[in-house]
Amino acid sequence: xxxxxxxxxxxxxxxxxxxxxxxxxxxxxxxxxxxxxxxxxxxxxxxxxxxxxxxxxxxxxxxxxxxxxxxxxxxxxxxxxxxxxxxxxxxxxxxxxxxxxxxxxxxxxxxxxxxxxxxxxxxxxxxxxxxxxxxxxxxxxxxxxxxxxxxxxxxxxxxxxxxxxxxxxxxxxxxxxxxxxxxxxxxxxxxxxxxxxxxxxxxxxxxxxxxxxxxxxx
Length: 218
Description:
single chain, 218 residues, alpha+beta, 3 domains, four-stranded antiparallel β-sheet, globular
């Protein structure tokens, strides 16, 4: 058996997500992590405040919590949309990452009620070829251990539709090079970033079916 002091010293080297996962290894590890306060509550809380749930039919996000426990956060995000309540667009969570929520118009922290406006993404100067046209999905990137105030939003294309007649027989997905639109909270603007694929392609476009992930994100 490893002494608690030695185990605590090793566990301190882990990132918050890895440390949280280590609590599930065994009761002894959980006791060491909790008793010594290794898991910082401001980076990764140990309690569940509620669940944001997307409803496909009404394109709206609802917040579920247990009233008897006293929710630590509020699911009301209308403070991010100034104006008349009757004219507000529906609140819909597109993505989430380490406590931040990505809405259509902003990125918000429901725990602190801080939010940042997200301007509309510009069109690509060179539209992709017909075989590469697909429904884009916005994804949020945020690591509070690196910077509590910095986040990025990436627009990633989904697998092109199976009904695309112009799909090339030898086209790979994802391609070896992909240009994505990225929003940086540091510059508060959108920019283009080129990504190179590492390793082999997932498959050839004719053999892949475009998913409907955008309709079922939760």
